[in-house]
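Structure request: FAD-dependent oxidoreductase, Halobaculum roseum.
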Amino acid sequence: MTDPVVIVGGDAAGLSAASKLSREDPDREVIVFERGRWVSYAHCGEPYFVKGEVDELDDLLSLSPAEIDDRGIEIRREHEVVAVDTDARTVSVEGPEDSFEQPYGDLVVATGATARTEPIAGSELTGAFTIHGLDSAAAVRAMLTPPDEFDVDNLGGGHSLDRELVARYGAMEPPETAAIVGGGYVGVEMAEALDAWDVDVHLFQRSERPIPTFGEAVGEAVADHLLERGVDLHLGAEVNRLLGEDGRVAGVRCEDGSTLDAELAIVGVGVAPNVEIVENTPVELGEGGAIAVDEYGETAVEDVYAAGDCAEDHHVVTGEPAWVPLGLTANRAGRAIGQTLAGTPTETGGIAGTAVVKAFELECGRTGILDADEARAAGFDPVSRTITAGSRSGYYPGNEETTVTLVADRDSGRLIGGSIVGKDRAAVRIDTVATALEGGLTVDEVERLDLAYAPPFSPVWDPVLVAAKVLNGALEK
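Returned structure:
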């Protein structure tokens, strides 16, 4: 009998691979090992659960354990794979009752990423969170809820929830001041979430603008909007320590010695790929520390695949390996690997780093290469232009200013990146730019795209087309 397909990790990439394989080849045995109790949940929805827009943790589950069983997938929660032996084709597993060696025919590493806390000292203090897991999100919401209104049963989660942890935070008095360390996705989204609980929110970002990967125009717009909404911004301020008192967060301290009193701290300084289980194997890592894979998600070791936040993909603009940990990338790569293992080789697809984020009423999107230094390092001669145009016909209700930045290569005229910010369906417009990058379109070709027009949806010249027209003019000079 063929050894089973073993999948390490029970979230987006792992369960996408398992589900696709089980549908296409139901006779193939599939075992998924997950070291935690939660499986198949939406990381990106956690700030909205904290805010209260998502009622229960169960609403963030894509698949319940029972639904996974119904698909013929054997999932073993609270079983951690601690090592891989690619010669013996086994994984070492530590479970709640015993440890054992599990043989595999094919192996899929989908171990995800871990929220970074270094170099922020004090991140182990009570009241410090990374918002990288449902227990963490539940604990924050519990801490924000007045004790006389808190009921752990109202959070959902069933047996997966760490009820003891959450109940401990639910017994605390809500914080008056919160410090957010890091102005990326998590920081900006959590500023909105905490503000909804009438907390005094301070956001610290070591660069001069929030969400720096979205470019200058978006960063400046977000900074202005956060200030309008009452968030205290500390830009160019690098936090090096969370201050504690009796084991609890009491404030933050910056490199320059300045401090702020706070009872709650959110640390959002990025993530690191979980690759420890393959470090002593022939499986190779890329420059960014994630697992290197080919176009089918296979590693340097035959029959060993990797997908999701622990693995690289290839960038559609540069053609080079890149590590951009995002939800669609993980789901798509996992599904492709599942289909490959079922007998139909399927490429995992390229990535452009397309991402969107909501900052209160402001919608932000980015894709491709925006940074001039990064573009030059990739061999391009970047030219960029930023425009502001209406989101709808000027006379139609709901029209809002939309700012678009497009970046192109001077020599070829090829579009290599873009960003968008605005209040009226700005974020979804980035998909047009992402599609153009995937197709390798020039700015001239983008300018001539036949985009839809009707007053409730767009002006005659969509903001993306306006930006392409202006950038094309710059390229022609």
